Amino acid sequence: MKKNRENDKEPEMRSEYDFSNGVRGKHYKQYREGHVMRIHKSDGSVSVQYFTQEDGAVMLDPDVKIQFPDSESVNRALRTLIEKA
Length: 85
Description:
It is a single chain. By secondary structure, this protein is of the alpha+beta class. Helices cover 35% and strands 14% of the residues. It has helices at 5-8, 28-33, 62-67, 71-84, and strands at 35-40, 46-51. A two-stranded antiparallel sheet has the order 1-2. Strand 1 (35-40) and strand 2 (46-51) form a beta hairpin.
């Protein structure tokens, strides 16, 4: 008999985490423009990775994403608008 993994999971947030002074979306605009990640390795070297939005990719605002959870639904809606234009 398989164990139910749902019951074995720890809560996602630990009680010692304090986000009371957090600001939602603080780095939102900079992230959408592209960002750099520096990974400091144990040997003292630093790995640098650059992330930018892929060509043709579109970022949906959170309120829009609720209505369009996947590419298929976005494309269907846009095609409907194009047909009516």
